[in-house]
Every structure is written in structure tokens, then in C-alpha cells.
């Protein structure tokens, strides 16, 4: 929500300057961009340089490659697009990305690539700037409202779904300039100014207290902080809040260092997260914030102010641009693996290879069915349809293996999947309902062409029992049927969901060979990175894992029996990966040869699936 408020303020301040310059004939796009370089580049280059150096000392190879990409995209002001592209089920935790926050700077600068040109075009052609401003703002808002329930990640990072927030501030600035030009710039009555400012403050506070990560954002919910910021700014100095609170020396001082503080705070918090293995305590977080404030003040006083106000001429601009090119080259080299961090050894390379060992969708063709991507791996005349989540997607490499082992019997496979979503027709995502798209697409496929076999699978443990990502996953889904919405984390919701799954399988079994795919083990103890020991400040190594194994908890064993009973009543065949993964009740993290089996705490490696997942072959091959 802070970013949305910042967008409004940015649009108001910068657009106000541009419009005033256009009115007085002093508007220059070149001058505007020169000011932006002086304003943005000094602190940005310093922070990126700091992150690059510290990352070289403490990050693992895969982490360093990702940071290199983020340095490159940060310098190019396309961090939002880079983060959008890498988002997904296997995305790195936000708290572990030191340059995650640069997405908002990317959106802002993309806006200012377009907005000055639009002002210049309207002024020179005598078109009404109001009309252009409102048209673009409305289109952007409509795009935001349309995309958020369908793809909240796209709506969050895309520039065109965020421009309306900056244009809200721009519209306010244009209105203020027109009022001043017409001689009606008198401040609003005190009662009105106070009403506006406190109403705006209430909206911003409500957005902070009411909104959380479980709700799709931005969408209409972003209107709360945006409208709140507009009201506070519109109130002006006539309001008590603006005059005595927001204008006091402390708040003004924070405003002066706000940009370097924005740049410094998140990398320090993220590095604290990394150094503490994901669990920084309150003292560490407080210390990171305190250091960020100190560094922001030093950056403003010793770097930003001199470059902006003391050193005139074009030389500082050329130096800053040259430094940004060097940083971009360094980031690109890190991204491509040409520059390696300090922590490089065969043990860590094993973990890196395991974490990247994923091969879906690979080179499969994609067709859109009912607005959902369905992957196709063409082979024989018979067709196998696989429906589920990433615990179904992980078996795609077995198809590639069978193309070599039994090409004459291999079925064409269709994959209607969506990561993190249970493959139960009446279970929906309580945050937006997008999970149902995979099942709708599967139904459309079944109605449009002959399908020999159907495989239904998923991370059943994730949805019904708590070993991995428990509460976040279970509470996110509800069973919607007969006017009821039952949470899967309750006994009633669980039983109803399993009954719905049984009915779903029975309906499929009337026309197809149907398989219910049980789940593989999942446990935080299976995460390969957990066995990296040592200090990121000194040396790291992988402790022996050949003797590491887990025992399935009773809740998981009970769920497996319930799913077997569902399959029996529905008259479908069970595919069980457990005999291949566990022996004598224990499930090892590595094979007898010492190769890691899992890419993370709940997904199998592609290399393991390719060679060992023969338990799936009956569903992928035509009967003899």
C-alpha cells in the first residue's frame, strides 16, 4: 500500500513541475531526463554496487545469478518485468530477493518515459491534456480491474495496470495548476480541508489494516490507498494534519531522504533474511532499519545533494550513465554465470543442480482452452490427459524417457495443470477463483476429442494435512457447493472435498481409463539446501545426506488410506509412487548412489523422474 501512496505523490509532484513548465514555455524533455538522471542514478548506483559486492561474499551460485539479473533489470528500469517473468510456483521467496523493491521504480520510470511525451504532444497540437490524461487513466484502471481476478501477479507488476495511480496524482496536479492560472487558488475552508485529510488518512489506514496477502491486489482494493493519498494531498496546508503533522521537521526530513531510504531498506532486510537462514529476529530487523536510515541520510547528504545541486554541467550525467553501463554489464555477467560468487564448490553445485532440476513444460506445445494453457506432447494416436498441480507436472520428464524406451506405445499427453491448486472441481481458491480454470479446460478437452486415459493427481498432503506450507495452503481453499463455502482445513470441508473428488472420478470412469495419482513424500527435511552447513561469511559445505530419511506422519498415512477408499468406490486405479521412494517405512533424501532425489521439500527432481518413475507408465502407454 505504501507504493500506491508513493505513486500518487510522485505523479502529483513531478507532473506539477512538467505542466507548469509547459505553460510557461520552458518545457524540455531533454532537461526532464537530465534531472531524472541526477535524481535517481547516484543513490541507485551506490545501492546496486553495495548489493553486488555483498552478494559476491555471501550468496550461493544460483542466488547470485538471480541477483545479477535483478541488477541488470534494475539499471534498465525493467525490474517489474523481470520479476513478473520469474514469478510462479517455484519463485524465490520475496524476503530473499534483495532488489525486489525495484519493481516500483521500474513502473514509475516506465510511466515517465511516456508521460512527458504525451504532455508535449497535447501542448503542441492543442489537444486537451485533460482528455488524454483521463482516457489513459481510465484504460489503465479498467486493465487493472480486469486482470487482477484473472492474474493478480500480472496486474501487480504490469506498468499498464499501475499507470492510473500515477495519473491520479497527475490529475490533481493539473487541477491545481488550472486553479492557480484562473486566479481561484484560494485554499479550501478549514473544515473541508480537515475533512478531506482525515478521510484520506482513514482510507490509507484501513488499507494497511484490512488488506493482506490473501486478497487479490491491486484491483479495486488499490483504490483505498490511492484515493486516500489524493484526499490528503488535495487538502493542502489548510488542514491541521498537513500543516502540523506532515509539515513538521521530522516528517520533512524523512521526505528528503525518502528515495535513498526506499533504496536501502529492502536490501538490508533481505540480506538479514538470507544470513539468518530465513528467520531474522526482531533485533536484526530493527538493526537493518536503523542502518538503512543512517545510510539513507549519508547518501542524501554526501552523494545525492552534491550531484543534484553542486556539480553543474553534463559531466556528472555522463559519468552516471557510464557507471550504470558498467553495473549493467556486471549484472549481466553474473546472470549468465560468467562471474561466480565466492561460495563455489562441488557440494554446493550439487544443491544448485538439484534446485534447478525441473523440466515442465519444456518444449511442449501450448494451446489455450477456455482461457487456460493446456500443454501437448504429441506422440501416438491415443491420448492421456493429466489434470492437477505441480505434483503432476513433475512427471513430464518421464514422457521424454518413454519416447526413447517405448516410442511405439507412447500416448500423446495433454496437461491441464495449475501450480498450487487442488484438482477438485468444486474446490476454489478463496482469493480469486483462478484454480477452477484448469478443471474447466480439462472438461473442454474431454468434450472435444477422444481421450483414452485420465490421470488426476496433486499435492494432497498440502491441501489436507499440515507437513508443508500447511496453514497458508489449506486455509486458502474452500469447497463451494450447494450455497456453502467450507474451508479445507476443517473436517466438514475435507470430507466434502473428498466426496466431490469421488463423484468427479466416477463421472470420468464412465468413459475413460482413470487413475488417481497419490502423492510423494513432502517434508522440510527433504529440502537439499537444509544440509548446507557453515557460515556464509566464511565457508559452506554440504553435510553427508546418504543416511538422511523421513518417516511419514500418521496424518499423511491416514489421508492415503482415505484416497485409496475414494478410488475404490469410484472404480478407478491408484498410482502410488511411495514404493519407489520409501523402503521399510523410511523415505530417503538421496538415492543409494548418493544422488539427491528432491529439488525442494516436496517436488521430485526431473532426473529422478526420468529414470525411476516407471510407476506412471501404465497411464502413459497404450495397452499391449
Q: What can be said about this structure in brief?
A:
The protein is built from 26 helices and 14 strands.
How much of the polypeptide forms β-strand, as a percent range?
5-15%
Cα radius of gyration in angstroms: 28 Å
Tell me the number of helical segments per DSSP (H or I, 4 or more residues long): 26
Briefly note the structural class of the backbone: alpha/beta
Strand order of the largest sheet: 1-2-4-3-6-9-13
Q: Averaging pLDDT over every residue, what do you get?
A: 90
Can you tell me the overall shape? globular
Low-confidence stretches: 467-474
| Strands, total number | 14
Relative helix content:
55-70%
Q: What kind of sheet is the major sheet? A: 7 strands, mixed
How far apart, in Å, are the first and last alpha carbons? Answer: 60 Å
Count of individual domains: 3
Keywords: Membrane, Transmembrane, Transmembrane helix
Protein name: Peptidoglycan/LPS O-acetylase OafA/YrhL
InterPro entries: Acyl_transf_3_dom (IPR002656), Acyltransferase_3 (IPR050879), SGNH (IPR043968)
Domain SGNH: 381-607
Notes on the protein architecture:
The protein has helices spanning 2-23, 29-58, 61-75, 79-86, 102-125, 129-147, 152-157, 163-181, 190-210, 223-235, 240-245, 249-256, 258-275, 282-310, 315-335, 346-356, 390-393, 396-405, 436-448, 460-464, 470-474, 491-509, 554-570, 578-581, 606-612, 617-620, and strands at 365-369, 372-377, 383-388, 412-417, 427-429, 453-457, 477-481, 484-487, 513-517, 532-534, 540-542, 549-550, 573-575, 587-588. It has 624 residues and is α/β, with parallel strands linked by helices. The protein has 3 domains: 2-184 and 248-339, no CATH class; 192-236; 359-520 and 552-581 and 604-620, Rossmann fold (3-Layer(aba) Sandwich). It is globular. The model is unreliable at 467-474 (pLDDT under 50). This is Peptidoglycan/LPS O-acetylase OafA/YrhL.
